[in-house]
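ingest -> validate -> predict -> emit
validate: passed (alphabet ok, no gaps, 156 aa)
predict: started
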Amino acid sequence: MIPPTGFSDSTLSDLVVIAPGDVLPMFRRWSESAAVGVVRRAPGSRDWQHIPAAEPGLSVTRDDLMLLADTMARFEEEYGMFRRVGTSPGRGHDWESFYAEMILRLFQGGLPEKQADLVGDMQDWFVANSLDGDVPDESTIRKRISPIWRKLRADA
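emit:
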């Protein structure tokens, strides 16, 4: 969010689209990042309007910047950045039901001798309950079970 800021014959205010290149120096991974970025281009009706060099531009910090959720989701989808995991059946793995089933299994059958047995049981549960055939791999299930397993074993 920026206050009303005039450039030549344009005024920018509130939520404003900015050119990524203007703030890129603030996000360097290989060297020290700049604390402040200077917006030198403003969105025009068809293309970017360049702010004349005689004007100071608009200084922004990281705290001034935000990404819209739909923009971020499109970027993640396009570049395969993250797999969004939901808890509803058919959209990712249903971890809430997984934990409920694991608790029920432990309550009814007790703690198995080996963690691998519990991991196998829970992987079988996913196979039986997956609507789209998508089942998490053994290491993912083990990561979810391990903290609980360690705590139960420590208190046994």
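The mean pLDDT is 80.
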